[in-house]
Design a protein that fits this description.
27% of the residues are buried. With 179 residues, the protein is mostly helical. The protein has a single domain, classed as Heme oxygenase-like (Heme Oxygenase, Chain A), CATH 1.20.910.
Amino acid sequence: MQDAHYLREYARALSICAARAPDEASIAMFAEHAAGAIAVERELHESFFAELGLSEADVAATPVAPTNLAYCSYLLASAHGGSFAEALGAVLPCYWIYREVGVELARRGSPHPLYARWIDTYGGEQYGAVVQAVLDLADELGPSLSDADRVAAAARFGVTARYEWMFFEMGLERESWPV
């Protein structure tokens, strides 16, 4: 349920990246990715929720966990307040880490159909191509950045990479608000 909350805000951050992108191809790419974060991911979640007996109302009524709120707030602040390079640095870990985890889990496999669907989504070639397009954009943008801009983008990347780890940990620990 936390992932459903996260993806709505991640789609917003991707939409901001689209609005701030330096060229038409990048605008289109991020706009498509924002729509995909809502459509494709929601489809995957809805099948999970149905299997677990959860309704959309159950998901909507679940409070956003502290780590999730902090992560989403940081993503949106980075996309709104930083440069395009900083926004890209902030959204890149979600793409890249899910791809790496998906590929590794695909290599290992899972007998559980619920996990296998997640693995197929993130470990597959279609998602790999999406990630590669964003990595290619980062590689194209990098040489044109000043040292200060490169450091700022790398800092955003580092923070959101840590938030990705914290997001997975939050789910394992079933984090909730203490009061």
